[in-house]
Amino acid sequence: MSENVAVIGVGQTGFRARWDSMTYVELAQQAAVQALADARLTPDDIDAVVFSMAPTHFMGVPDCDKWAVDFVGARGKPFLRVHTGGATGGSAFQAAWAHVASGQYRRVLVVGADRITETPDAQFVLNLIWDPLYEQDFALNTVTMTALATQRYMARHGVTEEQYARVVVRARRNAMNNPNAHLKGLITVDEVMASKRVAWPYKLYDICPRSAGAAAVVIADERSARELCPRPAFVSGIGAISNTVFMGDRCVPSADCDFAEHAEISLAARECFEQARIDDPASQVQVLELYDPFSSFQFPELESMGFCARGTAARLSDEGVFDMDGRNAVGPSGGTLCTNPIGVTGLVRVADAALQVMGRAGAMQVKGVHNALATAAGGSTQFFTCTLLSDEPRRRATA
Amino acid sequence: MDTYVLGLALSPPHAALRSQRTEEMAFETVRAALDNAGVERTTIDHVTLATSDEMDGRSISSMLMAMPGGAYLKDELRVTDSGLTGLVMGALRVASGRFHLGVVVSWNHTSQIDVDALTRMRAEPFVLRPIGLNGVIADGLFAGAVQHRLGLDDSAVAERIAARRQQAARNPRALQRDADGAGDDAPLAWPLRRGHSAPASDGCVAFVLASGQWLAAHPGHRPLARIAGVASAIDTYRLDGERLGGMALFDQALDEVLKRSGHSADDAIDVAEIEAPTAWHDLAIERHLAERRVVALSPSGGVWAQNPLFCSGLVNAAEAALQVAGRAGDVQVPRARFAVAHGSHGYAQQCQTFVAFERVAA
């Protein structure tokens, strides 16, 4: 039987294009110090540290995590780095969860940092994730890859570019309430539509920024959590899934998961919700912090996770169902569309979801949050994690 | 821990594997481990990969490697530190109660990469990289420190290498070499010479782990070993005099794994398979263990049997598990019931990891 686990402290630096005033490890340190202070703990109170870092090719130091050891208070402790591409932050959090749920450790710090703009062209680096023999020579990167999936989704469900533009408008508006967000502002659909074309249907504003910054989360067993934190955010469900890298294999009738629908996340969400006894996510989950680096991610993922029927998310989005005061607040923080320090983005999603449950999200706070979902996605939209934070454990015993 | 080794497999070691892509090596090893465990891939509920982008020569290498690693539509998580760290993570996942049957896999197609260039890029860019620090120099600094601290010399190193080569020659899972590199005294980083390090090799290791609950529900399956405990500790990044050769974290992590396994520091360790990248490390660890009751130290031959750098610690785990299962072949230690596998990674062994295995009653 698993130990119950809860988030008891979070820390984030602000996110921006560059952090020239601090080194990589100093950034990570700042987030760790904040999270520890938030949890009312010192480094000596931490039993183990999980480091969240995706490809190091952006910032250029393969052992960046080892370099950070002294800065995040990990010396003398168990320490490991998790890397699942864009899903890294979600996976790192779930790795830390396993440390505590196993009963082997009581308090674990998850921390990481990223500096995507250390490289002049992130999409050139992201071309290197593909097969060197035949894929890299295409203009294949994460923008063109997801644009292809978006075209497929648009053709299938009749979604327009303007409907994606409204997602961007909502995200930038929500980010106005987030002091850590990278991009924010009151923009219009026309401004999104007029932004520079990148890869159809994407314009520049449909695409997340390259962000620098750090995040950290402290998790603890239930006893510690109740002692230290007036309102912990309990981990009531976790799920993750990994699919094939090959996109073509996900575009055929016999595919287990369709490329356009991000259908893999349905498997992760089902597992996560089953643990948390969530039967109807649309009515039971008040906040979603989605890993949505492109404006086109929300619709297929909301549908795949059971928040609405297939092909209906764009219409519901237009109707305000996913606004801050809607049925399900999607991305109160502005989400990944406004801030994407890849190595910790999934962890930021968890941190922002936890703050909602803890009632400490400030101007981002949604009223009456009992359950908040954090997701992450990575690779060729092949890795997905779902983590549900709740105001009580309410976890179903695993069979 | 309520975590068991249901099966395992090691790929045939190669000095330089040219006939297979890395994903083929991983696929075949995972397939063999599942066969060894007597389970189908469809029945596992999670996969833990332990692999490095830089070693694999590809950014987010798990994009390609997750599938041959058995993770198609499975809950997959990846660590990047070392193969043995992957086993620690896999064991914790099973112990969490959320997972019950899974795969841990790690590989290193070492012959495909320039290890010295890679380990230099690992250094932070302000001080260490400009002065040219890499893995060899870090190992040389370690060797220099333990030479001074423990009074080791070249003759002791030569004797240790000869002994390890003899052990490796008896190991049925070892890469049988023609004493390549033996006696090569080309200086690398004083006092380290080329022949003091075991040649790197290509290889892959996979474990199938099961929970006690899964075993209770599948009484027809008998595990090879129980994972009695896991422990690790990371030291400062600074290569200062205190850290180099002090091996304080080695002691700390070993004490911790014994404690977590229900053993005291005075209890006998039947087998300790240690990761010693050079003979200097080997001797230093042996001296360090002198006060403990270690019956057999690296009976497999250690890295001299095979040395797929990133996953050499996981090779040790396989050897240790086979020892307590009584299946180690010609290197079997009689009556081995409790074994520890050691792994290290980072500059000059910054991180020390141990996994303890216990024999499972028939």
What is the average per-residue confidence, as pLDDT of chain B, rounded to a whole number? 95
- What Rg of chain A is obtained from the alpha carbons, in whole angstroms? 19 Å
Q: Give the fraction of residues assigned to helices of chain A.
A: 25-40%
Please give the number of β-strands of chain B: 12
Please give the alpha-carbon distance between the first and last residues of chain B. Answer: 18 Å
Strands of the widest sheet of chain B, in order across it, are 3-2-4-7-1-8-12-11-9-10
Count of DSSP-assigned helices of chain B = 11
Summarize this structure as a short list of keywords or feature phrases.
heterodimer; A: 399 residues; alpha/beta; two-stranded antiparallel sheet; 12 strands; globular; B: 362 residues; 11 helices
Structure description:
The complex is a heterodimer of chains A (399) and B (362). Chain A is built from 14 helices and twelve strands. Chain A has helices at residues 24-38, 64-67, 88-101, 122-127, 142-157, 161-175, 189-194, 222-228, 264-276, 281-284, 298-304, 313-318, 335-338, 342-358; strands at 5-12, 48-52, 79-82, 107-115, 197-199, 202-203, 212-221, 233-242, 287-289, 329-330, 371-378, 383-390. In chain A, strand 5 (197-199) and strand 6 form a beta hairpin. Chain B has eleven helices and twelve strands. In chain B, the strands form two sheets. A ten-stranded mixed β-sheet of chain B has the order 3-2-4-7-1-8-12-11-9-10. In chain B, strands 5-6 form a two-stranded antiparallel sheet. Classes of the chains: A alpha/beta (399), B alpha/beta (362).
